[in-house]
Amino acid sequence: MKVLMFNTQPYELETFAKIADELNVQIDHTTEALTIDNVDKTKDYDAITIQQHGDLEGEDLYKRLAENGIKQISLRSTGYEIIDLDLADKYNLKVTNVPGYSPRSVSELVLADTMALLRRLKDYSKREERNDFSWTGGQAREIHNLTVGVIGAGTIGSASARIFRALGARVLAYDPVQRTDLADTVEYVDVNYLLSESDVVTMHTPLTPEMDHFMNFERFKKMKNDAIFINASRGGVVDTDALVAALEAGEIGAAGIDVFDGEAGITSVDLGDKGYDNDNLKALIAMDNVIVTPHIAFFTDVAVHNMALFSVRDAIKIANGQKALYQVN
């Protein structure tokens, strides 16, 4: 069995070698993202995995994959919005993702952002650079006295909910599916109540058409003026123009942003002196009450290993005519 990994990163290579030995397969890799220009690299392989920001566009790409004998597209990530599922179905390409690679990796960053914003660590750090060691305006709230709202209480959202509940917070959840295993952890409520009651709001939803720019200015206005907003899910679930406007207008108190509109070509790249063209990102980074990280919520040793392992396992299953564990279509 031969598997080709597209758009590989240096931090994945050691994991690939371990998985190849563990599963007794040949794993080759390329730093290129999968496109119509390099799709014929798949000709000599049984299966592929990808991890990239850009969409897989154009019917010819899906057609060529099928003609080359590929039966699937396995993503080394949770989100699969880059795939045209209609075209995948048309050419009998099964799509898989890895929704449960390490829920703790994301939820721990959400907690870290929340703690840092509550304790105003960015503001204090900037003050110290100016030799200002005063306490003015820095009195913090404690988590056990707060209400945390989780929008999307799936695998990752529920992990976040459990962490905050363990710290004594009241936890509200908005999700069309109400999980019985969270009965002792969250109160399920409608989204307007969650936004108005929560001191911290954290997003954990996929980017579906219904969730595109779900957090708009009107929803930010429903939040408390001192509330913290966290997004470590998908950039597109937030209208970034509205987020910047809400922060500038004092409609919300602070934000922790790990994903954002227009992040392709920015996150995971050292841009050096070239800089980047994203005014909203520049505005967010400049704010003392905002923490921006470059899509690193997933980036832990456990998560990187599981993303590769789960995707390869599912790719092999489909190549062998079996149903994958995390099959999307």
UniProtKB/TrEMBL annotation:
Query: Which CDD domains does the record associate with it?
Result: LDH
Family per similarity comment: Belongs to the D-isomer specific 2-hydroxyacid dehydrogenase family.
The identity of this protein, by name, is D-lactate dehydrogenase LdhD
Instruction: State the InterPro entries in the record.
Output: D-isomer_2_OHA_DH_cat_dom, D-isomer_DH_CS, D-isomer_DH_NAD-bd, D-LDH-like, NAD(P)-bd_dom_sf
EC numbers for this chain: 1.1.1.28
What PROSITE patterns does the annotation carry?
D_2_HYDROXYACID_DH_3
Annotated keywords: NAD, Oxidoreductase
- Which GO molecular function annotations are given, in alphabetical order? (S)-2-hydroxyglutarate dehydrogenase activity; D-lactate dehydrogenase (NAD+) activity; NAD binding; phosphoglycerate dehydrogenase activity
Q: Which residues form a coiled coil?
A: none
Location of the D-isomer specific 2-hydroxyacid dehydrogenase catalytic domain: 3-329
The record's listing under Pfam families reads: 2-Hacid_dh (PF00389), 2-Hacid_dh_C (PF02826)
Question: In this protein, which residues make up the domain named D-isomer specific 2-hydroxyacid dehydrogenase NAD-binding?
Answer: 114-297
- Gene Ontology annotations of biological process type: L-serine biosynthetic process
